[in-house]
Amino acid sequence: MAEFPSKVSTRTSSPAQGAGASVSALRPDLGFARSGLGALMLLQLLMIFNVGATVLYITAFIACSAAVELTSLKGTRPYNQRAAASFFACLVMITYGVSAFFSFQAWRGVGSNAATSQMAGGYA
Question: Are residues 78 and 43 in contact, defined by beta-carbon separation less than 8 angstroms?
Fold first, then answer.
């Protein structure tokens, strides 16, 4: 045990000038984003965003359409505004749902069935 302290090096490096993080460390890796794996990761993030937005707009549509009848008289300006907001939430919900579906289809791939992928690629 007496030899142990002499074998240990306790020299440390000093931090670089300018105590903040360097700008080059904060730049995104565009090479990774352009790669196949990076593109799949971005597609999966878009799919998650679209599914989350769909769920939020479903709740907005339900809450808004449920409040139309209870809070205002039919034919008045507040009734029409709430009905229009409910209709818009429904349109956006459908749009995000369709976008999420197509994102899922792209993420899954064209030949999701292994047998059809093998047949199309091997015997064309």
Answer: no
89 token code pair: 């939430």
3-state class of 120 per DSSP? helix
Token output for 26: 């904060």
For residues 53 and 96, the answer to whether their CB atoms sit within 8 Å is yes
Q: How is residue 110 annotated by DSSP? A: S
R_g of the chain, CA atoms, integer Å? 28
Closest C-alpha among 36, 44, 32, 51 to residue 99: 51
47-92 per-position pLDDT tens digit: 888 889 889 989 988 888 887 777 778 888 888 888 888 888 889 8
Residue type, 124: A
State the alpha helices, DSSP H only, in the chain: 4-7, 23-26, 30-34, 36-71, 77-108, 114-122
Rounded-to-integer distance, Cα 61 and Cα 101, Å: 19
Cβ 87 vs Cβ 72: under 8 Å: no
Contacts of 92 (CB under 8 A, 6+ apart): 57
